[in-house]
Design goal:
The complex is a heterodimer of chains A (418) and B (117). In chain A, α1 runs parallel beside α2, α3 packs parallel to α4 and α4 runs parallel beside α5. Chain A folds into 3 domains: 196 residues, FAD/NAD(P)-binding domain; 133 residues, FAD/NAD(P)-binding domain; 86 residues, Sandwich (Immunoglobulin-like), CATH 2.60.40. In chain A, strands 1, 2, 5, 6, 7, 8 and 19 form a 7-stranded mixed sheet that branches. In chain A, strands 10-17-11-12-13 form a 5-stranded parallel sheet. In chain A, strands 22-20-27-24-25 form a 5-stranded mixed sheet, with no helix packed on it. Helices cover 19% and strands 34% of the residues of chain A. By secondary structure, chain B is an alpha+beta fold. Chain B has 2 domains: 43 residues, no CATH class; 62 residues, CPE0013-like (CPE0013-like fold, Roll). In chain B, a hairpin with a 7-residue loop joins β5 and β6. The N and C termini of chain B lie far apart (53 Å). Classes of the chains: A alpha/beta (418), B alpha+beta (117). Chains A and B meet through β4, α2, α3 and α5 of A and β5 and β6 of B.
Chain lengths: 418, 117
């Protein structure tokens, strides 16, 4: 049997996903001198999730201006188009192999692509009701916060009259304000943890500004209603996050929004054999953002969840630059040393660094809110402190960075102390 | 009198303490100088930006997102939203285009934040 499929196209750098990370990755590769950069996006418009994030606060770091998501998306994609990135729109990657062959379904037909390097930038998905095991009936009116944002901002739909929000992730907080603007009464935001999981500024300007109650250490334990949600039951939780019997209270509402976490979308990465971290849900990478599969890089929310689009873009620029280096054969190989997450650190990224690399920046998050914190990076063999920062406060919702000025010669561990 | 604030100018969200002594404010906890201006404004005249999404005439089922060109006094948010609710711009709309100039005399314009052709 002969293969009757299309002949394979070849491209030097192929980026999957045209959100804030993918657009930047494509630009990063172009700016590093690669002529042939293909950016594949399944939607009609580039920008990814930015298109439905109509609130301002984007671009503070990349554009030194506070703009909305759609403006950020248009500026970045205009830059990409002007600087010679080739877009494949309404094209969906169905399969990716470890030797960088992509199978793509597109409006123009099936495409088979051999890539010099691949940059993964597929973003993330929302955690759903099923994934948190939320009990109750299964009426209409239960939405993830992001899908509600899509329906309200892009489709002009009124999704309900009275809403309860479970989880204090940023999208949930943003939607509490957005629903209030649309005349929908928000009865309260309930967070199972003893602290808000979204950014402080969103608690301030999305909840406190409008007297929307935020109840910590509380969760939804039942959803009631037949065709449509008629109420939810909330309860306090104990230190083990178990509902406290007798603390239940029923709240009438017709809508429940879930803002209970984001998960990197790595189905394609898995097909390519990319090893994932159980801590981030994204690829294990070295300091060049290369995954365990040579020539496959990862950036943005598919790598780890970012709180700010600008950081996803900065990571994208770096992934694109590193992909270009790989294509040119300018990458020096070599063994890597591991970077471990020590006391009070939820995760650190990258998880490995090539021996001898200098000027490496580590991204990390802490496990719990802390005050008067010292963050230290130590060599696990020598015990030597390679980097140290002191911060007046640190919360899990903020990703922080720490730079190691000297070359890395041994495995490292990062820890935070009060 | 001490007031505790969360600075909303960037994602760091500094916890600011401002001690008010008549017309003077002593500001602490800010990681950058913008925090001082923020505390003065937040305590004396709080301001916010706002965004919304409105249907475009002549572009079937297309919405255009809008925001203000600069923050306005917080108590004008709902009056401005009422004004924006009646807005039906005609396609094409360009990013940055002024859809309502000097809305409610605030000096802020309502601008389109995406291009709809």
């Amino acid at each position: 049997m002969t293969d009757r499929g299309p002949a394979a196209e070849r491209h030097d750098v192929v980026v999957i996903g045209a959100g804030p990370a993918g657009l930047a990755a494509a630009l990063g590769a172009r700016r590093a001198g690669i002529d042939d950069v293909l950016l594949i996006e399944r939607d009609r418009t580039p920008g990814g999730i930015l298109n439905q994030c109509i609130h301002d606060g984007f671009g503070l770091f990349l554009y030194k201006d506070s703009i909305s998501g759609p403006e950020y998306a248009e500026r970045l994609s205009d830059d990409a188009a002007r600087e010679g990135v080739v877009f494949a729109m309404e094209a969906m990657v169905l399969d990716l192999t470890g030797d960088r062959v992509l199978r793509v379904a597109s409006a123009g037909g099936y495409r088979l692509i051999r890539a010099g390097t691949v940059v993964l930038a597929m973003g993330c998905r929302e955690r759903t009701r099923d994934m948190i095991g939320l009990p109750g009936t299964r009426p209409a009116g239960v939405f993830t916060a992001g899908s509600a944002q899509n329906l309200v901002n892009l489709h002009n739909l009124k999704i309900g009259r009275e809403a309860v929000i479970l989880g204090s992730g940023d999208v949930g907080l943003i939607m509490a304000r957005r629903l209030t603007f649309e005349g929908i009464k928000v009865r309260g935001v309930f967070e199972i943890l003893p602290w808000a999981s979204g950014l402080e500024r969103n608690v301030r300007q999305c909840l406190l500004d409008f007297d929307i109650p935020l109840e910590l250490s509380a969760t939804v334990v039942d959803i009631r209603g037949r065709d449509r949600v008629s109420s939810v039951v909330v309860a306090r939780v104990d230190e083990a996050l178990r509902p406290v019997p007798g603390s239940e209270r029923e709240i009438a509402c017709d809508t429940l929004l879930l803002s209970v976490g984001l998960i990197p979308e790595n189905e394609l990465s898995k097909r390519a054999g990319v090893a994932l971290s159980p801590l981030t849900g994204g690829a294990v990478v070295d300091e060049t953002l290369m995954t365990g599969v040579p020539g496959v890089f990862s950036c943005g929310n598919v790598l780890h969840i970012h709180d700010v689009a600008d950081w996803a873009s900065f990571e994208g620029f770096e992934a694109g630059r590193r992909a270009a280096e790989y294509v040119r054969g300018a990458r020096s190989g070599g063994e890597t040393v591991g970077i471990g997450a020590g006391e009070n650190i939820r995760y650190v990224l990258p998880q490995a660094v090539r021996r001898g690399a200098s000027g490496v920046t580590l991204n990390f998050r802490v496990r719990k809110p802390m005050r008067g914190v010292t963050v230290e990076v130590r060599g696990t063999a020598s015990g030597r402190v390679l980097a140290r920062i002191k911060l007046s406060r640190l919360v899990p919702s903020e990703m922080r960075k720490i730079r190691i000025p000297t070359p890395v010669e041994e495995p490292l561990e990062i820890a935070a102390h009060d | 009198m001490t007031e505790r604030l969360t600075c909303v100018l960037c994602p760091i969200g500094c916890q600011i303490e401002a001690v008010r002594d008549g017309e003077k404010l002593d500001v602490r906890g800010n990681e950058c100088p913008k925090g001082v201006d923020f505390a003065v404004q937040e305590i004396l005249h709080p301001k916010r930006n706002l965004s919304a999404s409105v249907p475009v005439k002549g572009a079937a089922r297309r919405m255009v997102s809008v925001r203000l060109s600069r923050p306005v006094p917080r108590d004008l948010i709902f009056p401005i939203l009422d004004t924006i609710a009646g807005l039906r711009p005609e396609a094409p709309v360009r990013r940055g285009q002024v859809l309502i100039a000097d809305v409610l005399g605030t000096g802020a314009d309502v601008i389109a934040t995406r291009t709809v052709l």
